[in-house]
Specification:
four-stranded antiparallel beta sheet; 503 residues; alpha+beta; single chain; ten-stranded mixed beta sheet; 15 helices
Length: 503
């Protein structure tokens, strides 16, 4: 170690052949290290950016019912589940929210386009679309008046020539197989740069999709009039598969009616609409302020009766749940944990399973990084091998003297390995500084731009993962140092008598 330190100090000041060679080797390692760090940060950043865009449309994990619906639509699923919403208390889970999908056709006077409507509720995590909002605002679905608003992409907005506050008509295939129309108002316009998804997805309130798919039942009553003190009521039922039953508060009555009721006092008449495997719904006819002293049937005044409903049982259903994780790396483990806590009729689908082509493509980028790192390591090894051989040649006489006084070939090798380790470490330190400085500048200022139509991002993305950086530095250092054992093997062929006589 002592001899190696003295040699390192002398090499730094020496003006002979070895001095420039050592500096060239150091610069080569520094540049190679900077290229490796930059390549790794760019590839990891690009993968992370694209993953975020895809996950923004579908979250990490979806929980849905087994079976198939029409097209993309999933069979209805009860919202009341043991994991909802308490599962978001886990540290690995950022949020859980309801969703439903439905194909539709959006039509304007200028164009027509097939789209996928994603229905969301008040529990939806809007952070992704807030970051990518370009005009307008995010719909506030906690307000009843906003339930006919939608969020559309900039691509669709330009193609269909619609803007903020414009009305658009969307056509769907309903549960009966015919087409239904819904009118919406454009509340906001987003742009993620991922055109394959931007050209498809429109976000609406989930109730719109529930009504189109006829999830749940709707009960209602109509006041047909009053004659001879008897109120005539007709019942209506909607939703489900249409094969529902009507049960009145008077057990003897069946069917829609109209049925007559004698009103003698304050009373409530109700009808329950029910269907197999679907939660029922109820409508009420309430009469108040009737003279209790009268024993005859009386027609209530208009202001003394009301018709109310439970609001429809569609509010108990959803298309599924989306679970957003804190870290993508937790996907496999959390999917397994969630799956084992689900009922037998539920299943999990990861974002990798929904978009395998995108994630397989992103994984192929790892090969590019591996090739670049391998090439840079080979170049660094060649530079260091050349430099070390020159150092050995210039120190032939010193090697002969060390051997003559009893030093073994292994001890002499250690001297040059220490010297090589210093050069490698110095080059890596300089390379790390250059690489991290470049990556930090690109991340902050974004001076290297890209065409978003081809690369999905407007500037070169950067993500420095310091655990990756640590593994890269350790790997490069030990590989380069290990390869230096080969050139130091030349020391074994140097004989003290020849080396000293040569000097």
């Amino acid at each position: 170690m002592f001899i190696a330190k003295r040699l390192i100090k002398r090499e730094s000041k020496q003006k002979g052949l070895s001095g420039p060679i050592v500096r060239i080797a150091t610069i080569g390692i520094a540049l190679g290290m900077a290229v490796m760090i930059s390549s790794l940060a760019i590839v990891v950043g690009f993968q992370d950016e694209i993953r975020k865009k895809v996950i923004g449309f579908g979250s990490h994990i979806q929980v849905t019912n087994f079976g198939t619906g029409q097209g993309l639509s999933q069979p209805k699923l009860l919202i009341d589940q043991p994991f909802y919403p308490s599962i978001d208390t886990l540290d690995e889970i950022e949020s859980i929210h309801q969703f439903a999908l439905k194909e539709g056709v959006i039509e304007t006077k200028d164009n027509i386009q097939g789209v996928i409507l994603k229905g969301v509720a008040t529990d939806y995590n809007w952070s992704f679309f807030k970051d990518n909002l370009v005009r307008g605002e995010i719909p506030d679905y906690s307000i009843e008046e906003s339930k006919n608003q939608l969020l559309i992409s900039s691509y669709l907005s330009g193609r269909l020539k619609v803007n903020i506050s414009d009305k658009v008509a969307i056509y769907f295939q309903n549960a009966k197989g015919s087409m239904s129309q819904r009118n919406f108002i454009v509340a906001g316009i987003y742009s993620t740069g991922l055109q394959e998804l931007d050209e498809q997805f429109i976000l609406v309130h989930i109730d719109q999709i529930k009504r189109i798919n006829q999830w749940g039942l709707f009960a209602n009553l109509r006041y047909e009039g009053c004659e001879d003190g008897k109120v005539s009521l007709r019942a209506y039922g909607n939703g489900g598969n249409g094969r529902f039953r009507l049960k009145w508060s008077v057990d003897s009555l069946r069917g829609k009616g109209p049925h007559d009721f004698c009103i003698e006092k304050d009373t409530t008449i109700y009808v329950v609409v029910s269907e197999k495997n679907t939660i029922s719904d109820t409508a009420f006819f309430n009469v108040s302020e009737v003279d209790d002293n009268s024993s005859n049937c009386r027609c209530p005044e208009e202001q003394h009766y009301t018709i109310t409903t439970s609001g429809g049982s569609q509010r108990y259903y959803t298309g599924g749940f989306e679970i957003l994780l804190s870290e993508y790396d937790q996907l496999g483990r959390m999917e397994e944990i969630i799956y084992h806590h689900l009922n037998y009729n539920l299943r999990t689908t990861t974002i990798r399973q929904k978009s395998p082509e995108i994630f397989n493509w992103l994984e192929m980028l790892d090969l590019n990084t591996l090739v670049i790192i391998s090439l840079m390591i080979i170049i660094s090894v060649i530079n260091m091998t050349s430099a070390l051989l020159i150092l050995i040649m210039e120190r032939t006489s010193m090697i002969g003297i060390l051997k003559a006084i009893g030093a073994s070939a292994g001890q002499v090798q250690k001297v040059f390995l220490y010297q090589a380790a210093y050069i490698i470490f110095l080059g890596m330190a300089i390379g790390n500084s250059i690489g991290i400085l470049f990556c930090s500048a690109q991340k902050k200022f974004g001076f290297i731009k890209l065409d978003p139509e081809n690369y999905y991002v407007s500037e070169v993305p950067i993500l420095i993962k310091y655990d990756y950086l640590l593994y890269l530095n350790l790997g490069v250092f030990f590989i380069c140092l290990l390869m230096m054992i080969l050139p130091t093997g030349a020391i074994n062929s140097i004989r003290p008598s020849q080396a000293i006589r040569f000097n």
